[in-house]
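During the reporting period the student researcher (J.K.) took over the structure-prediction task from the postdoctoral fellow and processed the backlog of single-chain submissions. One of the processed entries is reproduced below for the supervisory committee.
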Amino acid sequence: MMDRQPGPPYTRKPGDKSIPAEAGSERVLCLDAATGSNLWQFTYDCPYRIGYSSGPRVTPTISDGRVFTLGAMGDLLCLDALNGKLVWQRQLLKDFGLKDPPTWGYAGHPLLDGPRLICLVGGSNSAVVAFDKDTGKQIWRALTVREIGYAPPVIHEMDGRRELIIWTPDLLAGLDPETGMALWTQPYPVAGQAQRPEVSIATPIVKNNEIFVSSFYHGATLIAVTNDAAGSQSARVVWNRHSSSSESLNDGLHTIMTTPVWQGDYIYGICGMGELRCLDARTGDRVWESDAAVGGTLGLFASAFLVPHDGDVFIWNDQGELILGRLSPLGFEEISKDKLLDTKENTRGRDRLWCHPAFANRCVYAQNGVELICISLAASSL
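J.K. obtained the following structure tokens:
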């Protein structure tokens, strides 16, 4: 796991609206899953120049005895999983000549694909960069966009071809994961919608040859990718559902951080006020809405994470509650609920916690910035 140790507080001068450098360090921690005891840690200095300075945002990726981490200011590390020793490191801002990180810090998880570690970086022809996982050296770089956003890269098979799916505030794109060559692009937001950068956050979800994305200001969009007779690919908008007013957001699905769940012909997700909604994936029409996912109290950027499990869904909300429920076109059925952690911060007028839990060993691991807990789920026979 990763966390941050803050340094001396910054005192903002009257009228100062800049984002200052806030002293502190980021840590990569290896804990014993059974006891929580610290096995090793790797610490590095990391002043923050980002909004919402709690962090980091990215979950470590582990493979073949290596741990890959990305800090909020662009520190990309490869560590030995056994002892935490540094294998290689890159500093994305410095290495690619970037002046600033994304407004809320680097948050798109690196994607490990064979010998490649694929990251959202930013800059000219380096929105996406593939690094050699063993050395950190660049393999390829691709795309130029104004903002890289926060949605992690994913790989899926699209119409018979294995593709790297990238979603930024400017576009959706399919790339060849081995070379970075663009196979297709689709402008985002779609034609007729006003631009507003920096809100691509939730992971794109893919089914067959269709890709679904959802954001707070632009609602929900489904695109389809097809091959032509010559083998070239193109993308088209199947449907787009959004409100004409950012104040009401009364149509479709307006996701902030939660990756939606696509089951059969229906898509389930959490909107920006905490509404759990069901959409008909064929049309984008809303089927139902519930406030149950966030404890019955909606509010700006109220949030919950959806984790499918054996036909049911775990919901971890910003009030520290873990809910086991069932999603269907008929509505949401709550099976059980328990409060595991207290909220330890207030932002946007709401007491909340935003840390995503982890599920392993028939347990849930969760934290609120002060406590890290392990709760057994074995009694539920899950």
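The committee noted the following: Residues 1-11+18-90 form a domain with the Thrombin, subunit H fold (CATH 2.40.10.480).
J.K. will present the remaining backlog at the next meeting.
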